[in-house]
Amino acid sequence: MSKKLAVGVVFGSRSVEHDVSIVSAHQVMRALDPEKYEVVPVYIDREGVWLVGDPLRDISSFKNDKVGEMLGIKEAALSSSTAFKGLIVPPISGLVGRNSLRKLDVIFPVVHGSHGEDGTLQGLCELVDLPYVGCGVTASAIAIDKPMTKTVLAQHGIPVLDGLTLTRGAWLHDRDGLLNQIEAKFAYPIFVKPATLGSSIGIARVTDRDMLGNHLDVAFNFDRRVLIEPAVEGGSEINCSVLGMDAQVRASVLEKPISFEQFLTYEEKYMRQGGGMKGAERQIPAPLSDDLTARIKQTAIDAFRAIDGRGIARVDFLLREATGEFYVNEINTMPGSLAIYLWEPEGLTPRALMDELIRLALEAHAQKRQTRYNYKTGLVAHAAARGLKGLKGLKK
């Protein structure tokens, strides 16, 4: 029997989506085949401390914020050396205690939002040369940034709604001026969205100037930048997951979430009927014509490729049902959506989906190793012999 792969499932972190991350991580750990993988839970607490230990496998350990005080929990750090790929436990040894090394074969990042889904954790994995599941640094950073996603997709001819991006500094400097600018550009109702958050946190649909000002105050508490968009009246949301990398990308069945509010709130996404991450009501497959379904699926694939995505993502669309027009609303890279439920109708069980994601992670890492990063020249010897004065880039 071949050796099991050690999979570090990293979750939590300094993010307003911390709690969502805990639930997602336990779904991932439950789906990973214990015959193939040795799962190593790695929890980053709300202050940014990395922790390991068996209690992390039990979601009930997270009912309060005292998991770090539990018996069996130890502090850890990811090794910064490419000579050893894994965890150092604890990161600093004392006079009587020694640290140990915990090898990892692949990282499964399940940090929602800031300091994880945004490319920062992916960048750390790149630095230490560890394979990791999901999109790379660039795709992750673009997708979590709603204004940047809009810019990139528009450059590729992919339909997106018009938008206006505001900064916290400008809002504090000229509140009335920005309100006037928004009202000159858009008619109510409009949406206020923090630029880089997910899970509907900080998002509001506003219908007048007073609501707009109040919700901008709220949104700027969550982000330095805020996106303003027009509402699609009489529209609906359609979601499609995509899976793969490079030329081999496929689309899932489409879903139509059913909202009991005017847009899907955090509570509807995660807490309705006690359904956890599947709590939102939805129609699968979405009740659309074959032609419209095919066009939305292809656009989802095109959007994923436009940001150089790999692994898995869910592309969310806004559809004007009366006309058949649709727009990409956002791209949720992993773990913004693992979309397990969208792949089951395609014949992929949760375990099979985890296998495919890890296979893609290892393939992406193998491709990276084909790229040359070591390039030696005679520049240092030249500078040592003749001095630095006069070298390009330095003042004489």
Per-chain topology:
Blueprint: E1 5-12, H1 18-31, E2 37-44, E3 50-52, E4 74-75, E5 77-78, E6 86-89, E7 100-103, E8 106-110, H2 120-128, H3 137-144, H4 146-155, E9 164-167, H5 168-173, H6 175-185, E10 190-194, E11 204-206, H7 209-222, E12 225-230, E13 235-245, E14 248-258, H8 266-270, E15 281-283, H9 290-306, E16 310-320, E17 325-333, H10 340-343, H11 350-368, H12 379-386
Parallel strand pairs: 1-2, 1-8
Antiparallel strand pairs: 2-3, 3-4, 5-6, 6-7, 9-12, 10-11, 10-12, 13-14, 13-16, 14-15, 16-17
Describe this structure in words.
- With 396 residues, the protein is α+β, with helices and mostly antiparallel strands.
- The chain has three domains: 5-132, Rossmann fold; 143-157 and 234-366, ATP-grasp fold, B domain (D-amino Acid Aminotransferase, Chain A, domain 1, 2-Layer Sandwich); 164-230, Dna Ligase, domain 1 (2-Layer Sandwich).
- The chain is 32% helix and 25% strand.
- Strands 4-3-2-1-8 form a five-stranded mixed beta sheet, sandwiched between helices. A five-stranded antiparallel beta sheet has the order 15-14-13-16-17.
- A hairpin with a 5-residue loop joins strand 2 (37-44) and strand 3 (50-52).
- Residues 265-279 have low confidence and may be disordered.
Proportion in helices = 25-40%
What's the N-to-C terminus distance?
65 Å
SSE ordering = EHEEEEEEEHHHEHHEEHEEEHEHEEHHH
* Full CATH superfamily name of the largest domain: ATP-grasp fold, B domain
What is the number of independent domains? Answer: 3
- Report on the biggest sheet: 5 strands, mixed
How many helical elements?
12
Radius of gyration: 23 Å
Just name the CATH architecture of the largest domain: 2-Layer Sandwich
Strand content: 25-35%
CATH topology of the largest domain: D-amino Acid Aminotransferase, Chain A, domain 1
